Every structure is written in structure tokens, then in C-alpha cells.
């Protein structure tokens, strides 16, 4: 029975590798089309990988915990009814649908991708067999153009496009580095080590050994990978690329808290989760419209400032897999009830670690609710590519001036960090003042919209 290899597909985010977290099948198992084979973790999300074939598992190429390049063989299938004279990956009938979360399908006349000169396998395009009337239904493999791009830069210094971009952003000369990755690949860790004065990847020094979940009596070591790895690199890039400026505003939010209590009792919000974050999200969208520079990005390659006329609102979420910032697409178009529903869904999905790459990409401005941890204020680091992030502190009952007297009021501190290339101090201050005015006196909305 012929064997068909299934390569790790491009999951649609232009990423060059994924880590194999969990196998859901074993060699010898018989699987159905779209049955979940494994969970793989990209730099952004945990993704379930459905089967592109109906058949028998003949080989699992990699153990759990292995980092696999896009296009490398992942699993081999024995496909009944395929043309036995055809090479591996050929002779099966095709299905034109695309697996959920994958990139676009390969054109029917597309040429197979070449094998990397370093031996990394790439995907091939199955050839339809018109005579195989009883052949099993097979999902079409997806294009992996990123593999060709990686292959084109195998000459020294060898690295992936995201790593080369990171090196450019941080001012690191890749020609001075010796890669510690497979086959001498220069990794993000090599670039970051060079930036911080580390020696693990400079001048051919012996690379550091990375322990994987090795526990001792006095310490525990866990390999840096997945979301934690991506977040660390992104924060370093943001901190060393965008000149951060921060401002703070402490306000009396008693009227907003009273409004929330009233909304919870109203029929319109029955069954909805409305809280301070919901109101802040709405206030931010209104303030963005009045101060559009805070909703922009700096395109270094094009030497352009990109002004967004929509708000993809990111919400920083602490999850078991690390910090994630999924975003609500077109949040500015939602009313308060719609925002409440969107926030509930977003937070619930994020806490499960199930946010998709699409939900994690494309944000334009973000909120981080540090108040949920009892923190009064902070100076958050910008989500890379965004001009502004708003930190929401804890609400506390404090003595406060009210109507000419001292009274116990509900008070919180708002903090903003912004990219000073894109947002001047005046613009950042006006944005923060607008958000504060809405939270101090929600009726001010009538004067702003």
C-alpha cells in the first residue's frame, strides 16, 4: 500500500516553524478525514492539526516537544486505493477545501516545492488520479512559500525572515553571529544574546545547553518556547525600537461604578457580563476618534505612518501559556452591549489558551487590566506595532474631594504608554484626559459623540 507524507503546513501567519506539543494518534491507527492528529504551538497560538487524509498512520516523524520546520514531513499515511506506482504524496484524489486555520490551497498546476539543500523536507503537491473512482477523499495540502524563502537564504549567515527582521530592528549584524540552531541556523535567542552581551552565539563560542523541564532540588529549569518565547522577543523589540513615554491620571470613578450597577439590573444587559473594562473599552473607542494619532503604526520599511480608521482593540490576558493579546476586530463599530459580548468571548477563549492566530494578529491599540491583580498603576510596554496601550488600575475607596468636602469615593489610576515617534505629548495627554472625563462623568459621552 503506497505511503503519502503530510508536511507541516504554513498555518497562515508566515511562521517558519512550530513545536509539536501533543500527538493525538499513534502509529498503526486508522484515522478519518479532518480527525485531529496533533496540537502544534506556533509563536502565537496553540493550533489543532486536522488530518488531510483518511487512512492508516504508518509513521510519526517527530516526538512530542520537537520543533518542526514548515514543509518538513510530519506524518506518513497508508492510503488505500492510491496509485502504487506514484511517488509518495501522489496518486490520491483531492478535495478542494482548505483545512481550518491553514493557508490558501496550492493551484492544481503548481510545481512541488524543492527539498532544502540542508535536508529539510518540503511539501509536494499530490497529482489527481482521474481513474481512481474509489480513492479516499483527501484534503488538499497547502502552499508553503515560506520554505522557499528560507531555502533561498541558506548561505551564511543563515536565518529565517522574522529573525533577520528582528536583527535589523535591534541593530545586530548577523554576520558576526554563529547560529546555535539546527544546521547552524541563527535563532532569535542568538540575536538577543548578542544584544545583551551574551556569548552563546558569538564568534563560534560553545552554545549554551537549553534544559527542558529539568528539575533539581533547589531549582527548576523550563525550556523557553512557544508563546513565552515570542512574547519575550516581541517585548525586547518593542522596548528597543519604539521610544516609550508614559503618563498617569487618577480619577474619581464613582459615577461609572454606579452606572455599571444600573446596567446590570437593566433588561438590555440581562445575562451580559458588563464591568469596568466594558466601559473603558467604549471610552477608549470614543477617545480614539477624537485623537486618531494614538491608533496608528510606524512602517519603517515604507517610511510611512499608517493611520487606522478602525479600532482592533487588544486585551492583554494572562493565560496558562503566557501573555496573550487577542483583539476585538472593529471594536469601534460595536455598541456597549456588543462590546460586553465580545469581551466575554475573547477573555474566555484566551484563558483556555485557545485564541487563534487571526484573533492574536492585527491589533491597533490595547488595554491591560492590571487592576485585576490589585495593582494601582504601571508603565506597560507597547504591543509591537501599536502606538498606544492603556493600563487600567484597581478601583479603591479613598478620601477624595467631592462637592467641596472630603468623602470616601471610588478612585482609580489610568496609565498610558505611547510611541513618541507617532504620538506627541499633547496628543497623548488629550487622549488620556478624554478617557478620564468619560469615566469620571459618563454623561460626558453626550458631549463627545
Describe the structure in your own words:
By secondary structure, the chain is α+β, with helices and mostly antiparallel strands. The chain has 3 domains: 1-152, OB fold (Dihydrolipoamide Acetyltransferase, E2P); 154-214 and 221-241, Irregular (Dihydrolipoamide Transferase), CATH 4.10.320; 244-448, Chloramphenicol Acetyltransferase, CATH 3.30.559. Helices cover 24% and strands 23% of the residues. The chain is built from 10 helices and 21 strands. It has helices spanning 145-151, 161-170, 188-195, 226-241, 254-265, 276-290, 336-351, 357-360, 425-440, 445-448; strands at residues 3-7, 17-23, 30-31, 36-41, 46-50, 55-60, 67-69, 73-78, 214-215, 220-221, 244-252, 296-299, 304-307, 313-315, 317-319, 322-324, 327-328, 365-368, 388-392, 396-402, 405-419. The strands form 6 sheets. Strands 11, 14, 17, 18, 19, 20 and 21 form a 7-stranded mixed sheet that branches. A hairpin with a 4-residue loop joins strand 12 and strand 13 (304-307). Helix 2 (161-170) packs parallel to helix 3 (188-195) and helix 6 packs across helix 7. It is globular, with a radius of gyration of 26 Å. Residues 84-156 and 199-215 have low confidence and may be disordered.
Amino acid at each position: 500500500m503506497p505511503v503519502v507524507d503530510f508536511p507541516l503546513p504554513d498555518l497562515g501567519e508566515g511562521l517558519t516553524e512550530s513545536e509539536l506539543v501533543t500527538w493525538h494518534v499513534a502509529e498503526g491507527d486508522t484515522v478519518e478525514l479532518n480527525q485531529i492528529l496533533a496540537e502544534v504551538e506556533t509563536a502565537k497560538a496553540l493550533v489543532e492539526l486536522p488530518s488531510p487524509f483518511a487512512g492508516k498512520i504508518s509513521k510519526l516523524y517527530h516526538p512530542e516537544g520537537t520543533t518542526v520546520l514548515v514543509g518538513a514531513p510530519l506524518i506518513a499515511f497508508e492510503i488505500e486505493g492510491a496509485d502504487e506506482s506514484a511517488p509518495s504524496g501522489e496518486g490520491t484524489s483531492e478535495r478542494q477545501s482548505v483545512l481550518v486555520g491553514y493557508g490558501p490551497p496550492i493551484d492544481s498546476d503548481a510545481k512541488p516545492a524543492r527539498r532544502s539543500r540542508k535536508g529539510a523536507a518540503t511539501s509536494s503537491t499530490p497529482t489527481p488520479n482521474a481513474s481512481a473512482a474509489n480513492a479516499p477523499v483527501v484534503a488538499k495540502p497547502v502552499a508553503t512559500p515560506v520554505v522557499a524563502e528560507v531555502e533561498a537564504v541558506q548561505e551564511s549567515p543563515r536565518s529565517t525572515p522574522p529573525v533577520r527582521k528582528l536583527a535589523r530592528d535591534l541593530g545586530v549584524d548577523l554576520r558576526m553571529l554563529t547560529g546555535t540552531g539546527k544546521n547552524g541556523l541563527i535563532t532569535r535567542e542568538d540575536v538577543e544574546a548578542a544584544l545583551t552581551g551574551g556569548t552563546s552565539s558569538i564568534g563560534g563560542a560553545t552554545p549554551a545547553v537549553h534544559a527542558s523541564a529539568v528539575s533539581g532540588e533547589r531549582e527548576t529549569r523550563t525550556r523557553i518556547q512557544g508563546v513565552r518565547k515570542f512574547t519575550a522577543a516581541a517585548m525586547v523589540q518593542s522596548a528597543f525600537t519604539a521610544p516609550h513615554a508614559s503618563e498617569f491620571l487618577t480619577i474619581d470613578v464613582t459615577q461609572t461604578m454606579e452606572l455599571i450597577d444600573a446596567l446590570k439590573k437593566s433588561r438590555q444587559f440581562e445575562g451580559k457580563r458588563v464591568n469596568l473594562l466594558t466601559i473603558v473599552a467604549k471610552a477608549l473607542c470614543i477617545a480614539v476618534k477624537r485623537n486618531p494619532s494614538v491608533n496608528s503604526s510606524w512602517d519603517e520599511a515604507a517610511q510611512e505612518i499608517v493611520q487606522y480608521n478602525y479600532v482592533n482593540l487588544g486585551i492583554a490576558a494572562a493565560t496558562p501559556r503566557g501573555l496573550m493579546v487577542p483583539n476585538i476586530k472593529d471594536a469601534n463599530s460595536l455598541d456597549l452591549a456588543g462590546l460586553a459580548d465580545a469581551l466575554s468571548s475573547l477573555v474566555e477563549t484566551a484563558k483556555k489558551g485557545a485564541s487563534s492566530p487571526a484573533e492574536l494578529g492585527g491589533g491597533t491599540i490595547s488595554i491591560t487590566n492590571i487592576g485585576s491583580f490589585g495593582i494601582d498603576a504601571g508603565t506597560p510596554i507597547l504591543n509591537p506595532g501599536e502606538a498606544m496601550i492603556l493600563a487600567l488600575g484597581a478601583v479603591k475607596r479613598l478620601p477624595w474631594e467631592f462637592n467641596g468636602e472630603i468623602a470616601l469615593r471610588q478612585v482609580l489610576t489610568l496609565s498610558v504608554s505611547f510611541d513618541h515617534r507617532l504620538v506627541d505629548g499633547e496628543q497623548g495627554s488629550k487622549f488620556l484626559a478624554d478617557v478620564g472625563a468619560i469615566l469620571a462623568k459618563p454623561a460626558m459621552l453626550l458631549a463627545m459623540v
